Amino acid sequence: MACSAEVHSDKAVSPEALLSPRPVGHIGIVLFDGFALPEAAAIIEVFQSANALAGIERSGRTPYDVGLLSASGGRVASSSSVFVWSESIETFRPADNFRALFVVGGTEAHNALRDERLITWLRLAYLRSELVFPTGEGRVVLEAAGFGQSFSARHYGESHYQTVRNAPAAGVLTVPFSPLQAALSVVEADLGTAIAGQIAGWVAPPAETQFTAILSKSASASVSEKIQAAARWLEANGDRPIVIDEAAQVAAMSERNFLRRFKIEMGVTPSDYLLYVRLNMSCRLLIETSLPVDKIARRSGIGSGGRLSKLFRKYLGKTPTEYRSSKRHSRMSS
User: In what residue span(s) does the HTH araC/xylS-type domain sit (predicted)?
Assistant: First the structure.
């Protein structure tokens, strides 16, 4: 039985494009006993969310069909002893090319290296897949199928993925991002940044930044409800031009009293807090999206890429581009 799912390219997809006929994208997730359930669940959730969002725009039509696959089909046990139901790899029809094939590892993946039927199927599926993404022991399985470091992986890391995600031009085993990020990249290429970004907010924890600790103080028990409400309002409206008097009205205080109370309870002025909100938003967009710096500056309420660069140099000691590069590198290394 198939696990059917009704689920960031920098181009937003127009309503006309969403409504135009588009073939269903087949997403395959190959599992082995002992697989990591959170990784598989994250992939499924991305495409389920995309189906739910895009289905609304397409009058109920969904863009993805997700199938859990295993060598023989039937129950597959995760590393946490949770069982899922899978289809046999042989149910995949040659005409149904995979939009993306995820080869998820598992403790029993090494035993699969002796399964010639599985290895033969992987070779054929690889050639019929737009994107092949191995994780964990799945890399070893693909290597056994002949797709090691020396193999030119033309189905992995080309076109959109190469330019947007800086994926390698060859070698499926050199993986620059997680299964979750790979799934989001597929959705981004197909449905646009807006939908992919919304899904990322649902399924991925927000990126930690240098400003997270400052902003999290607004939830502290030592901060009064009125100041908490004003801080939350600043966070919710930081992407647009605002004046501090509006936040004072939220707190039901005069502007003078509000400025004094906010500084005492939060440790920073409302203007500084608003700036940290915007810088935090900019940092997260740099880490989690491939949007250009100018667009990030506008979306964060900062205005221009030049002003954002000045603020980054002042508060972080590097340019937005340098910040993005360093954070992505640290994420890949973790």
Answer: 228-326
